[in-house]
Amino acid sequence: KAQSSGAENAVFDLATKVSGIDAIVSGHQHGLFPDAEYKGADQFDIDKGTINGIPVVMSSSWGKYAGVIDLRLEKTDS
């Protein structure tokens, strides 16, 4: 399954169609990512938890799961 219907598509669209995004922490839509449901979908890496190389967590509903993204931050003058 490449993409779910509804609000999940907004997250997947951000990760595949918008440049400059470093990570996505998604909520409310009750989907789960990474998940085996998306194995083999174009641009999705469920082992790394990325879509188009962008770390993404979608933690399902009612506190069932926790999403973790490990980021290295660097201060710039811009």
Key phrases:
globular; 13% helix; 78 residues; 5-stranded mixed sheet; alpha+beta; 1 helix
Could you characterize what this model shows?
The structure is a single chain. By secondary structure, the protein is of the alpha+beta class. It has a domain at 8-59. The chain is 13% helix and 19% strand. The longest helix is centred in the N-terminal third of the chain and has 10 residues, at 8-17. The radius of gyration is 13 Å and the shape is globular.
Outline the fold blueprint.
Elements: H1 8-17, E1 24-26, E2 32-33, E3 44-45, E4 50-51, E5 54-59
Helix content bin: 10-25%
Structural class by helix and strand composition: alpha+beta
Mean pLDDT: 85
Rg over CA atoms, rounded to whole Å, is 13 Å
Number of helices: 1
The count of β-strands is 5
Q: What is the percentage of strand-forming residues? A: 15-25%
Query: What is the N-to-C succession of helices and strands?
Result: HEEEEE
Measure the end-to-end span.
40 Å
Summarize the main sheet. 5 strands, mixed
Q: Report low-confidence residues grouped into runs of 5 or more.
A: none
Shape: globular
Concise summary:
With 78 residues, this protein is an alpha+beta fold. The chain has one helix at residues 8-17; strands at 24-26, 32-33, 44-45, 50-51, 54-59.
